[in-house]
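Subgroup meeting minutes
Present: P.N., E.W., G.H.
Scribe: E.W.

1. P.N. recapped why we're keeping a running log of single-chain structure predictions: easier to compare across weeks, and new members can see raw inputs and outputs side by side.
2. G.H. added today's entry (267 aa).
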Amino acid sequence: MGRSALRLREKSRIREYSAPRFYEIAFDLNRKGEVDFLVHCFKRFSPRRVRSVVDIACGTGPHLMRLADRGYAMSGLDLSPRNIEFLGRRLAANGHEGELVVGDMTNFRLARPVDAAICMQDSQGHLLTNDQLVAHLKSVARCLKRGGLYVFDRYMASSWTNPARRWSWSKRRGRLIVRASFSALNDVDPVSQVFRERMTLEAIENGTRRLYRQNHLSRMVFPQELKALVELAGGFEFVQWFFGFKPWQVLERSRHPIIMVVVLRKK
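Output recorded in log:
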């Protein structure tokens, strides 16, 4: 299952990122609140002032751009050359510079170490095995200075027996309308913890309609499992985890968490 699943995932991600402009518009959701939370973590948990940050699996850069606007020196890593090219144009148009790297999140290096790393929108879910997640954690640790923070979010479910979750929404930018639909927890395999995600983007602009579909596999990890994998990878100490992007919402106090946000610190 592993190899065929990975091939499916890679093909579907190429289809998804063939429309980075539409993807960027559709998923420009509540990013200010998320970036506020990231900045809070940088100030609260880092032993040094955070000046440089790498956004891992940065996509079209919704968090990277906002952190750059707040004065952070940003780097970005993504598997898609089209995403990196699109993001490079966005940075230049806003007067920013940054190291942008096309690469795999399980094995990458930066030109120089940074103070913090982020990985948002459950991008770690693309890692379908424990070995891949451990390799990823080791790669992140290599790119951080001692004491550097790693903040990431993971989608989670209160029960495997819940039906698939579905969301639909629309975003408008000028004359362009993007309608998005997304579903998760389809075809759950409780042994591998792998499930299928589906996304559709419908873009309407100047009377022209374009349709993009994504179908890929993702994997869920449970909180205590994640802690064990962090210990196995070495290099990080666990700092705190939260339910969502609120500093007062510690994960243990939540009854039905949907998003787990984790803060690690490099030893």
